[in-house]
Amino acid sequence: MSDIDHIIIPEMLVRLLTKPLDKTFHYTLERVIAPDNRPSDYHCNSYLVSDLAYWSVNGYDVDFCGAHGGGYGGDGEFARQLSRVAPRVHLRDVFLIRYGPDVVADARTTKWDRGEWAEKCREVLSRKRMDGTLASLNPVRRKWERLI
Prior knowledge:
By secondary structure, the protein is α+β, with helices and mostly antiparallel strands. It contains four helices and four strands. It has helices at 10-17, 51-56, 75-85, 114-131, and strands at residues 6-7, 26-33, 38-40, 88-98.
């Protein structure tokens, strides 16, 4: 799982896929920033996670779709829940490259009001805390359509 402005190059993917990984953990990766590949903190929304761990928390909570900001919607809550069932292990020898809009013009969404999204996120979190429903429930409950 990752954001669209982060990529993994073939050499790193091979390194990752040939590691003896344990499905009872989820993994984060190092990160560098393009174009000069300067080191950066790991990306908190990029994970390698087994299907077992992903579904043990019922996947990403669709209640947060459209409520980005403040941890981009439910990303922070998803990471907290995931860490409880599959602790995080950081891989220091595998990295992602982040491309910002200074390198790729549409690498990141900048046209929407992040303050408005953050407020929506706070509202969803508040409601879910009050309802006692912070865990993702019934994750596939919306009608989806294929656009491409």
